[in-house]
Fold each of these.
Amino acid sequence: MNADPLTRPGITRKTLIDEGIRHVSGEEAVARIGFDVSGLAIPYHTIGGRPLEVKGKHFHRVRLDEPKGGAKYLSPKDSGAQPYIPTSHRAQPILILTEGEFKALALCEAGFFAVGLGGITSGLHDGKLLPALAGLIEKKAVSTVAFLGDADTALIYDFANEAAKLRKALPPSVRLILPRVPFTGPKGIDDTREAMGESFNGFMQEILAAAVEVPEKSN
């Protein structure tokens, strides 16, 4: 673990603090998620910025200091998938869906509108958008959803399959595009921002403009 655990690539310490993210011990983690682990506790919020309550408790996920059984993150048992909506988000016509809270934060800090999913298959339940995600798209007048994976997602069948499911679940009036992170750079978009510095925003505009659109109905 880093000497200062409150660090993540592509995100300033101030943003992490402003979002309520903090390092917790095992005892604190038990109170938040029911597991005796240490790591970064990430509080979730509603569209309006209020604490998201699941089963009467403020919902958190914890990024573990040490992976547990292959898992890097843990959340309360039977709490279901929840979209991570940064409180600092600024609504725009393009909403970027990405995997993980920190990637969403890196994008929001750079001025984009992004939401984090617990995994690439975590935006839907029973073929429908998560209610909070559907509500966000409607309330913020989103016209385009950009489904953004890591540099290797072009090789992952589950990502393509999920994109097809997402297209079916989105309203017909909302476009779905697939921006691609090049194989030649860092794997994740947060690492990409860390590496690119001031040129990151121009890079993002380029991959959004070049993104492939998923048609509403495939022939």
Amino acid sequence: MSPRIWVGLMLLGCVSPCDALDWPPLAPALPPPPEDAVHVYSESTLQSAMNVLESGQTIVLHPEGSPYQLTRTLWVNGVDDVTFRGSTGDPDDVVIAGPGMANPSYGDVPHLVHLNQSDGVTIADLTLRDAWYHLIQLHRSDDVLLHNLRLVDAGEQHIKGSTESDRDGADRGVLQYSTMEFTTVGRWWYINGIDIHAGADWVIRFNLFRNIRSDDGNLAGPALHMWNESSGTVVESNVFLNCERGIALGLVDRTGYNDHEGGVIRNNFFYRSSVQSGDVGIHVADSPSTRIINNTVIVSGTSSAAIEYR
């Protein structure tokens, strides 16, 4: 069901938002894995494959090893065009798990997947859950495809794109047909679904962001946050349910550069019920030339505005 159709049903009083929700849409299947793909059936064989990972390799994870309870973060350092994918195409079938978002004794698993200077990586058809910090950490890694994922219960960000003082971030990423959510709420306010610093030309489409909210009485971060000299972000056809904040392109007034620039926010749907607190659904700040087109934002009286520029 498209966002526009189920919005119409809700406004007619036919169904509640949760009853009407059928999002994200079914993800298109990726091409079959290559003949030389590495097939793994346990956490130990997955870690062994990571130890000898080379550019161009595909690792296929099978349900027999699920949940893959990690003993150390899956580090991808300086290798390009690698793929991690579940074997069935259904992210519920293959789960990669950490020690828990509220467990400070995370040992060698601060994040689940960490990409460092590794371009063209694909992560697809998997569930990742229960990390103290991030489920997926991107550092100076461009052209990443995140496809048909279920990302659940990150201690900080479900997807984090970090940078250093030179603001060389992760560019041209694609996040699509995926769900980012908390089972109930996050463990504190410093949480996001996706948070990218200095990222250019990202496309974020056909995703569901759900329950991005904190339990400590402070306002949670935006479910979708692109800032710190980011630019050109395309945010389209996403659904945000019961998040304290929705989309933020930019956040603060920078000196010497823009927090975000350009991009478009179009055809998204945001809903928050009246019993939950929060800020605006769509927010642009220090982000010139950003277009906001054809979105539906329902905050149920919990905010003085639905869309703001600051």
Amino acid sequence: FDTGTGSWTLFFDGSDVGLGSNNVDALHIEDDGSILLSLQETGDLPGLGSVKDRDVIRFRPTATGADTAGTYEMVFDGSAKRLKDIDALGRAPDGRLLLSTTGKLKAPDISARDEDLVAYDISTDSFALYFDGSDVGLRSLTLDAFDVIGRDEILLSFTEAGSIPGIAGTVDDSDIVKFTATRLGSITEGTFELYFDGSDVGLGA
């Protein structure tokens, strides 16, 4: 979606690259143009075989848009960490992989909920709590998309409508809010504001 022109374009056509029977439920575009993905259900992908809903894969595109092409590789084996379905992923400013899962996340050294973000450090094979949603009034919501846009700023979206501290009215599942942190980690503090109103651009429900 181009906020300047108000126009939509197709960026990634999953049916072109073996995803016709599955759904992408988490993605992050890396600085090198590759795309990190997680799937809604277990399925087979060209060149990889079986991929579970708790895994993170990388798509290296040779073309995007209506004629998407490229190859897959495994990045993170969530099954080995006994995770549940990953439904949001991204990167911390320091490069660590950020994840949110459906339901409670119980990984080595950490316990989190579906409104939280956890960071995985591949160099130490360890997890840490990055964003504690319950600390800032999100206990009743399920985070299902985010993007870290600055050291202290995170864009967030949720699976359901609900109330968010500091934002008047109800935030819908088609909206994006911005969280500006004064503190992140196991103790999270900061403020929210509405960043993108999806109903204004045709997303509706």
